[in-house]
Structure formats: structure tokens, C-alpha cells
Amino acid sequence: MQMGASAAAQDATPPPNATPAVQPLDQRFMESLTRGHYLEAMDMVEQADPSEVNDLVQSTYGQFRPVLDGFVVNGAAPDPSVTPDDAELAAYDGAEAQDAIAAIVSRARLTRIVIVNEAHDNPRDRAFILKVAEALRPLGFTHYAAETFTNFSPDAAAEEMGWLESQGYPRWTSGTFTVDPMFAYLVRRVLALGYHPVAYETAFSPEFLAASTEDRIALREQAQAENLVRALAEAGPDAKFLIHVGYAHAGERPLPPTEQGWMAARLAGLTRIDPLTVDQTTFAETASNQKVRALQRVLASRLAAGPAIFFKDGKPVSSGQLGQAVDLQVVHSLVTAVDGRPDWLRETGRRSIAIPPELLPIEGRRLVQVFAAGEAPDAIPLDQALVTAGEELPVLYVPDNVGLRWAVQD
């Protein structure tokens, strides 16, 4: 379900007399992140006693470690001896890779709701959703709803969304995953394009967290859908929504393990609007299933340029359980490093700049950050990268015509 980080961030705050020393590691980690102490948070996990690093901590760390430079946390190394599942591979025989954005745009003309998912541990997915947002705006899409936006209460959400619209950039309190500079840049761009931000996540109350896994899924999916129904009604009949979700929330049909409806299915049922649903999380270099990774390598080798959707006899081809529950499935190229950063950063509409020499570490490692000059102290960096003395120097990516302010964390 991939709920750990969101739950940790939106859960009730600890009692006033609680101290960091007695809080669980996952809570201390998130509190450091939400204060902007990126390197402190990562060191906290990397240097922790192994007994504290449980599955929740490992998952949360894996989701947020990429905020330091854009690179995903490497799981098991790919096994070149593993081949794709024969039936899955055969489905792509004779299929043509078509530009993903063009395919989405052509179908988005027929609906008021487009839902695109992300893997919370892969900032590249956010860069792709930025391209979707840019392409949908000329079609009259008006609202950008993100699962990650803070939604402790209707009043708190309204205040934070109002702040975003008035200021044009996210801050530490804006959302869970918006601490990622790539996510923050996505938010900056959609605001600049004229989208209205919408928070729709459910509040993770103590009662919610005490429920069974199956009940939590049902409660969360229904609450998200109902929140979006209200937002659609308030926006009016001409409004069109781009909804940015995580993982299976984009599913229009039941999925294991619970075989119950996820948010997209519930939203469609409540609104009688057939959304365009897009999955880009099935094929990932970090997938635990080696056969899925093998299939991704084969499909990626067939891409001409950029993300693609495969079509056969005029119909989209997809793979995996989630692929069968959405309208379209995106295949990305394999990520490579360019100038010490993921190659996809070059396609985000920004320019690369070198780190000033005086900010480079003499020894050890240092997080170098660049901010927009004049923004509030709690603004999210425009970009940042981890620099290790004696290793390749990474570049940073910034928009044109923006004054810059530099900072470091040791």
C-alpha cells in the first residue's frame, strides 16, 4: 500500500513532553526532513543501530534518499540471466512505441479527469507528470490535485493551498513528498501555468491507524475519492483535474491483496466520469521482480526517444496487475548518469550550473543547495546534490532568470 511515509508525516504530532531521543526512528527521520535538515535525516538512518532500522524505516528512507540528488536507492542488482516472462513479452510482439505525452493528450480531450501515478521513491516520475501538466493546460485543465499535499483538516488545507497560490512555491508544510526539489519544481511550474492546487489526502487519525490493513485501505480510498468529489463540485462543471497519485490509487479495478476498489475506481463511481488513468510505476529499475526488470530492459531498448506507451492494433499494451487496471502504461528509458546527476533532469526545462568552488567539501561529504533568492527561509530548494570530496562534481539545475541563494549542509 506504500502508506508509511505519508502516515508518518500526517499523523498527529507527539505529546509536548516527548523528546527526539524516545521517539521511533521513523518519526525522528520525518521531523528532521520537515525542518529541512536533509543530511541530518539521512545520517540518522545510515548511522542508526541496526535494531532500529525496521521495515518501515527502510521503506521511508528509500522513498526520501533520492531527494539528495535524484538517484533512486539501489535494490538488488539486475540479474542478466533472468529473462522476461514469455507471455508478458509476447504481448508486445508487433507493438509500436508511441510518444507517451501525445498518447495521453489525445485521450485526455475526452474527459475531465486525468490520473497519473508515481513511485514515491523515484523523482523521475514527477518530472514526467510535469510534462503531462504542461501538455494538458492548453486543453483547459484547471486544477492540480496531489496526494502529497497536507490535509490535516479542511481549514488547514485551504490555508496551505491559498499560500501556494499566493506565493507560487512550496514550503516545508506544503506536503510530504514536496520536500523533494523535483516535486517542488513540479509544484512551482503548475502554479506558474495557472493550475489551482487541491489537497485531498485523508487525515491519518489514531482511529485510522488502529484499523486493520484492509479497513485502512477502504477508509483511505473512499475518503480520498469523496474529498475529490467535493473539490470537483466546488470548482464547477467546466473544471478539469489532473490528479497526481501514488502507485495503485490509479487503479480503476480491484487489485490484490484485498481485491477492493482503489481511489480512481471509487471516484469514477461517485462522479460518473470515466477518468484517464496512467501507470508509470510498474517498470522500474528498482523493481524487486527480476522478470519485470528484464521486460523493462527489453522494452526500453525499443524506445526511440523519451517515455513511450506501446500500442498494438490500435490498442494500448500493458503489463502486470496494475497495468491491467489502468488505461495507459508508460515505459521509461533506463536512467543513466550525466554530470553526476540522473539524465532525465536535463529534460525538465532548466539549465545546469556548476557548484561554486568555495562550497565544495575539503573532505567527507556535503549537501549543496540552491534556493531562489527572496523566497522564505522555509522554501524548498530549487535543487541540491550530495558532493563527496575527490569524486565527480555534480551539476545543479535551476530555472532561467531567477536570482540564486546558496547553502550547504554538513
- The low-pLDDT segments are 11-20
Characterize the main sheet.
6 strands, parallel
Roughly how many Å apart are the termini?
34 Å
By secondary-structure content and strand pairing, the structural class works out as alpha/beta
Return the average pLDDT rounded to an integer.
Answer: 93
CATH C-level class of the largest domain: Alpha Beta
Question: Strand percentage, roughly?
Answer: 15-25%
The helical percent reads 25-40%
How much is the radius of gyration in Å?
Answer: 21 Å
Counted up, domains total 3
Q: What form results from the Cα inertia axes?
A: globular
Number of helices: 14
- The tally of strands reads 16
List the strand order in the largest sheet: 4-3-5-2-6-9
SSE order: HHHHHEHEHEHHEHHEHEHEEHEEEEEEEE
* CATH architectural name of the largest domain: 3-Layer(aba) Sandwich
- What name does CATH use for the topology of the largest domain? Rossmann fold
Structural description of this entry:
The structure is a single chain. The protein is of the alpha/beta class. The chain folds into three domains: 68 residues, no CATH class; 244 residues, Rossmann fold; 61 residues, no CATH class. The protein has a six-stranded parallel beta sheet with strand order 4-3-5-2-6-9, sandwiched between helices. Strands 1-7-8 form a three-stranded antiparallel beta sheet. Strand 7 and strand 8 form a beta hairpin. It is globular and about 60 Å long. About 2% of the residues have low confidence.
Strand-helix topology:
Blueprint: H1 4-10, H2 25-33, H3 38-46, H4 55-64, H5 86-90, E1 96-99, H6 100-108, E2 113-118, H7 123-136, E3 143-146, H8 154-167, H9 181-193, E4 196-199, H10 206-210, H11 213-235, E5 241-246, H12 263-271, E6 276-279, H13 290-300, E7 308-312, E8 315-316, H14 320-323, E9 328-329, E10 337-338, E11 341-342, E12 351-353, E13 365-372, E14 383-388, E15 396-398, E16 404-409
Parallel strand pairs: 2-5, 2-6, 3-4, 3-5, 6-9
Antiparallel strand pairs: 1-7, 7-8, 10-11, 12-15, 13-14, 13-16
